[in-house]
Amino acid sequence: MVATGLAAVQARAQEASLDLDLGASYSLPPAGGTGDPSGYLNGGLRLAGIFGSGGYFHLGGFGGLALRAEGASWASLLAGGGWLEPVSSTVALGLAVSGEVFTVGAPVPYRAAYVQAEPEVRFGSDRTSVRLNGYGGIGVSEVTTIHTFVRDTRFGRRLFQVGFPVTSDLWAWGGGAEFRQQVGPVAPRIGVEAYDSPQGAYLVGRLGFEATFEGGVFSVEGAVWDSPDGDEFVLTAGLAVFTGPKWSLSASGGRYGPDPLLDSPPGGSAGASMSVEIGRFGPRPEIEYEIGGTGQLTLTLRLRAPDANRVTCAGDFTDWLEIPMIRTGDVWLVHLPVTPGPNHFGFFVDGAWYVPPEAPGIAEDEWGGIHATLFVPEPRESSDVTS
């Protein structure tokens, strides 16, 4: 095994950021249900980060305070993580796992806890990508129905309320496929999903797009649900604006679809929030590299480019053809075969040639530009670590 560059930092502490989210929202009662619209003040803390070559995680605690007596305040704890690992320049395998525990207060107290997992395969070529995923989830819920009655007592007629909790086991499984095509700053996408659950089967068709502009992202999605309760048509939109390295604003709203796992009906809501980074932990190298293998050597390159829409790598080992890199969080990653000796390379970030200042062996080429140079040693059995 031969390693260079990344081997020295592979055991580094995970990078993570702690963010404070504050906002407000307005919710309509579920379709076909009873209740009144209500406004909320929302807030929470969110810890998220990356680790290893393609791992990521998130933890959070959030709550919403109802602004009307008829509304139900809520609280939630959630956690999740996963891994996305490219197995070639065009294929990546991944697994995402998440869970949540939440409670909703009066007038209809409700509690639930669940965990869900999504294995996936991604195929990417230039500006086109296809995602295939499975889904499985289990959980438990408890809803308390309040019964009100009047009884005669020695103090006169009195009003009494009694709560009757009803517990239900939750489960759902299924999968889906999504096709995405980048066209300039716009990325249209189309997808289909299918689920099975105790209440019946669900089929979903989705059509949407994302538009990236300087400092933000706008998205719209429409979906048709064939659910056990009939056909449902939903439409949502969202906007995120990055106002600085530590600040962002977001707004979203529309009519949201049902949830097969929680057996929740469609509903409408709108809201806006502000997020501010209040702490960051761990190093933030812009470029990382690793060479491994005892036969055919493989170069793994990682470039941190959180604001990029598309990143490719080109070098001696690609015949200077652009090889798309796969995004995992803020980091773009690619695995490429290399041969011993000097290897010159660089990146195209949104179409512009780029060589990070900390890249190894930066030198000028015959056209007046610059490239990085990575010397690949001959493979040998004992480990050899350099930086």
Structural summary, described in words:
By secondary structure, this protein is an all-beta fold. It folds into two domains: 3-281, Beta Barrel (Porin), CATH 2.40.160; 287-386, Immunoglobulins (Immunoglobulin-like). Helices cover 0% and strands 69% of the residues. It has strands at 3-4, 15-27, 38-51, 55-66, 74-86, 91-104, 110-125, 128-153, 156-181, 186-197, 200-213, 216-227, 230-242, 247-256, 267-281, 287-292, 297-304, 311-315, 323-324, 326-328, 331-338, 341-349, 352-354, 363-364, 370-376, 385-386. The strands form four sheets. A 14-stranded antiparallel beta barrel has the order 2-3-4-5-6-7-8-9-10-11-12-13-14-15. It is elongated, with a radius of gyration of 25 Å. The two termini are 16 Å apart.
* Distance separating the two termini: 16 Å
CATH fold descriptor of the largest domain: Porin
Number of domains: 2
Mean pLDDT: 82
The arrangement of helices and strands along the chain is EEEEEEEEEEEEEEEEEEEEEEEEEE
Which structural class best describes the helix and strand composition?
mainly beta
> Could you give the count of β-strands?
26
For the largest sheet, list the strands in their spatial order.
2-3-4-5-6-7-8-9-10-11-12-13-14-15
Reading off the top of the CATH hierarchy, the class of the largest domain is best stated as: Mainly Beta
Kindly state the percentage of residues in helix.
Answer: under 10%
Tell me what the CATH architecture of the largest domain is. Answer: Beta Barrel
Largest pleated sheet: 14 strands, antiparallel, barrel
Identify low-pLDDT runs.
1-13, 381-387
Strand content: over 45%
Helix count, DSSP H or I runs of 4 or more residues: 0
* Superfamily (CATH H level) name of the largest domain: monomeric porin ompg
**Shape field:** elongated
| Computed Rg | 25 Å
